[in-house]
Amino acid sequence: MWALGLTLVVYVVITFTLTHTLDQETLAGSTAPIFDAVQVPWMKLVVQVVAALACLGALLGLMAGLGRTCLAMARDSRHFTFFAHVSERHSTPARAEILFCVLAITLVFSVDVTQAVGFSSTGVLLYYAIANLAAFTQDREHRMYPRALQVLGVVLCVAIGFTVSLPGLLLGAGAAVVIAGVALVSNRRGRS
Fold first, then answer.
1. The pTM is what?
2. pLDDT in tens, 169-185
3. Which whole-number Å values give the CA distances from 80 to 72, 95, 183, 188, in the listed order?
4. How far apart, in whole angstroms, are the C-alpha atoms of residue 15 and residue 2?
5. What is the 3-state secondary structure (H, E, C) of the chain?
6. What is the CA radius of gyration of the chain?
7. What are phi and psi of 70, to 5 degrees?
């Protein structure tokens, strides 16, 4: 909760600063508003370096999360056991993480960056919508928060999903349908 609260404060400060530094037209048309708001030339370089480091940090977190999710799914599957391997040296799901790194690199080099970001955002929103739906099914003794919070989470995920660029949204939705289909077929074959 402290991390979430601190993030909220940072967002509020940045929003306040940008709305008081740039006029509405410049802010609305900007693809890099923080960079545009900086007036000192050497500070523009600092903003670029910090932005690159933040992207790498986000990518590292994403790769670790996706790798663990893929590992858990592979352990429950009869068909994707190749990704259930854990590196003895680093105790990480290296094969799954390499898969997602290759996918991320392929996306960056083959698709427009806005579509790649939209695809990634759609995936994250879908992931959290499913997590909220799963939490909604918990019984009272295992529940930490009221069900209304999970409903709000799903509604917000869907609402934010409509702010994603249309090509990225369609690409993400299409990938989700394909993954759901593969999981369904794999699950049915596993039962028979």
1. 0.57
2. 777 777 777 767 766 66
3. 11, 11, 10, 14
4. 20
5. CHHHHHHHHHHHHHHHHHHHHCCHHHHHHCCCHHHHHCCCHHHHHHHHHHHHHHHHHHHHHHHHHHHHHHHHHHHCCCCCHHHHCCCCCCCCCHHHHHHHHHHHHHHHHHCCHHHHHHHHHHHHHHHHHHHHHHHHCCCHHHCCCCHHHHHHHHHHHHHHHCCCCHHHHHHHHHHHHHHHHHHHHHHHHHHC
6. 20
7. -65, -40
